[in-house]
Design a protein that fits this description.
By secondary structure, this protein is of the alpha/beta class. The chain folds into two domains: 2-62 and 84-263, YjeF N-terminal domain (Rossmann fold, 3-Layer(aba) Sandwich); 270-566, Ribokinase (UDP-N-acetylmuramoyl-L-alanine:D-glutamate ligase). This is Bifunctional NAD(P)H-hydrate repair enzyme.
């Protein structure tokens, strides 16, 4: 599922219309999708899959109407309406542009089905622009009540309760600054309403590009129906909480148009990830399931390599060898029976010595992948160990935690290319960096305030600059490949914001690298499995999730991905 910027969406619209598709046709398809979504979300009406007619133009699927008295379906907020009847209170607030035109199509379709929507225009009728102006007489002809609100109408609006639906068709994605004047007042009224809020394309006042909500916006939708493709800001907080679940209307853009315009990132779907999972094939013994080396550990941080190693085994790595300071091998062996330990030389403070890097390469240089960093500690000698290993390991390599700290101290811009060149001939992107936002700021020398509003663009730029697979950990995580592709992880849980979660993720991705996956796919699939395991391990809890809970449900997460079924709570749906 592709994520696009506002400008990319506008360009797809423009090229489609220039290719002979009338704008009124696109608006009609949009209105039908919105109507299907509204009836499905509020009344539980079935939503038929949007069939494509020749030429990739969505066929005008009929909009189902639930039987009178049919039990409604729940929406995001948990509020439901009592029953469907001719007096269902649906208020559609329309602006003067295409967003308002979509609202007028919705009103006409509802009226044609025996419902009585009420339209409030935010402009004089003669101020409607483009295709929206052409929709006004059609809505009038169908019997829709269209008004310019005054005190009486706003008083009635303020009395709307949770039975009602308010449709935000004011602004769409064309806004470049905060709403002003009358529109600011209208968005304030929507935000204060107790009714369920359906936003068309995007909640008014927000940006499809920037998830940070840089100005005060009162609108918080119960759900959003977006046109064409979801916008790049939608998966990120606080935008994610403002849009609610997202229904998507296929406008029938041709593949040629989509490919020529491009997109910013993708959201991997279970049906795609199921094809990526390594299959059993001819793997008849442990060596063929991938041999992974994990290097980490220091006094007080012995749990980190244990978590990474256990996670790797849970995802199916055939062999895991964990290299750590000699003084920690007893702790490790007692905590994890299934993995093998390797004692490396340690200094007076129990830290790894630089000469231990030679032992790792000489003994395990032919193994399939290496995870470097969990619990290493921050010692000058350990930094030298990291840089020495970074310059000599030739296979797939993942850097996390204190290995990233060492890399930042020595200069990522100079050392990452060296490590990449050492691995010349390997898979592009086989060097995987997994920083969280703080580590990313240290690696790049750029404070988070400079780039946190554009995590997709940031991850893509640095992945391409360094020639690596970059996993920018956050809520959600963005993975970028050196060739410009990017993915936004759709799975996860609040409880992952806990110490040790990153070590688990490193072990999962490392296991997939060891099983032969290239860097980008291993990272994307690993992030999804990690987040899905957290969802399964939480069992409804938000604050008590432990990294070990995530590890224990990893096999269940793998099985879930293999089934290719959408997990419960999946927030993206085509209508």
């Amino acid at each position: 599922m592709k994520l696009v910027s506002q400008s990319q969406m506008r360009e797809m619209d423009r090229r489609t219309i220039e290719g002979g598709r009338p704008g009124l046709d696109l608006m009609e398809v949009a209105g039908r999708g919105i109507c299907r979504s509204l009836l499905a979300r509020v009344f539980g009406a079935p939503v038929p899959a949007p069939a494509l007619a020749p030429g990739l133009v969505p066929a005008p699927a009929p909009v189902p109407v639930p039987a009178r008295g049919q039990a409604p379906g729940p929406c995001r907020s948990g509020r439901t309406s009592r029953r469907l009847d001719a007096e269902l209170p649906v208020w559609i607030l329309c602006g003067k542009g295409n967003n308002g035109g979509d609202g007028l199509v919705l009103a006409r379709l509802m009226r044609e089905r025996g419902l009585w929507p009420r339209v409030l225009l935010a402009c004089a009728p003669e101020e409607l622009t483009g295709d929206a102006a052409a929709q006004l007489p059609l809505a009038h002809a169908s019997g829709v009540l269209i008004e310019r609100p005054g005190a009486r109408e706003w008083a009635a609006f303020s009395r709307l309760g949770p039975d009602a639906v308010v449709v935000d068709a004011l602004l769409g994605t064309g806004l470049t600054g905060p709403p002003r004047g009358a529109l600011a007042e209208w968005t304030q009224r929507i935000g204060e309403s107790r009714a369920r809020i359906l936003a068309i394309d995007i909640p008014s006042g927000l940006s499809g590009d920037d998830p940070s909500v840089p100005w005060e916006v009162p609108v918080r939708a119960d759900w959003t129906v977006t046109m064409g493709l979801p916008k790049r800001s939608f998966p990120f907080s606080p935008m994610r909480e403002r849009t609610g679940p997202v229904d998507m209307v296929d406008l029938g853009f041709s593949e040629e148009v989509i490919q020529s315009v491009g997109w910013d990132a993708e959201i991997p779907e279970p049906c795609d990830l199921a094809e990526w999972l390594p299959g059993p094939g001819s793997r008849s013994h442990k060596g063929r399931w991938g041999r992974l080396v994990v290097v980490g550990g220091s006094p007080g941080l012995s749990g980190a390599p244990i978590l990474a190693s256990r996670a790797a085994l849970r995802v199916g790595a055939g062999l895991v060898r964990t290299c750590l300071p000699r003084g920690l091998t007893g702790v490790f062996d007692g905590a994890l029976l299934e993995a093998m330990s390797e004692a490396l030389p340690e200094g007076e403070d129990g830290q790894l010595l630089a000469r231990g890097a030679e032992d790792v390469v000489s003994r395990y240089g032919t193994w399939d992948a290496l995870v470097l960093g969990p619990g290493l500690g921050r010692y000058p000698e350990t930094e030298r160990f990291v840089m020495k290993l970074l310059g000599s390991w030739r296979g797939p390599l993942l850097l996390d935690a204190d290995a990233l700290f060492a890399l930042a101290e020595w200069g990522a811009d100079s050392w990452v290319p060296r490590a990449r060149d050492v691995r010349a001939g390997g898979e592009p992107g086989g060097l995987v960096l997994t920083p969280h936002y703080g580590e990313m700021a240290r690696l790049t020398g750029r404070p988070t305030e400079e780039w946190s509003g554009d995590p997709i663009g940031t991850a893509k730029a640095w992945a391409e600059r360094w020639g690596v697979t970059l996993v920018l950990k956050g809520a959600p995580t963005v993975t970028a490949a050196p060739d410009g592709r990017a993915w936004v992880n759709p799975s996860g849980h609040y409880g992952l914001g806990t110490g040790g979660s990153g070590d688990v993720l490193s072990g999962v991705i490392g296991a997939l690298l060891a099983q032969g996956m290239d860097g980008p796919r291993a990272a994307v699939l690993g992030c999804y499995l990690h987040g899905r395991a957290a969802e399964l391990g939480s069992r409804g809890a938000k604050r008590s999730l432990l990294p070990t809970d995530v590890i224990e449900t990893l096999p269940e997460a793998v099985a879930s991905a293999e089934s290719a079924e959408l997990p419960e709570g999946w927030r993206w749906r085509w209508v």
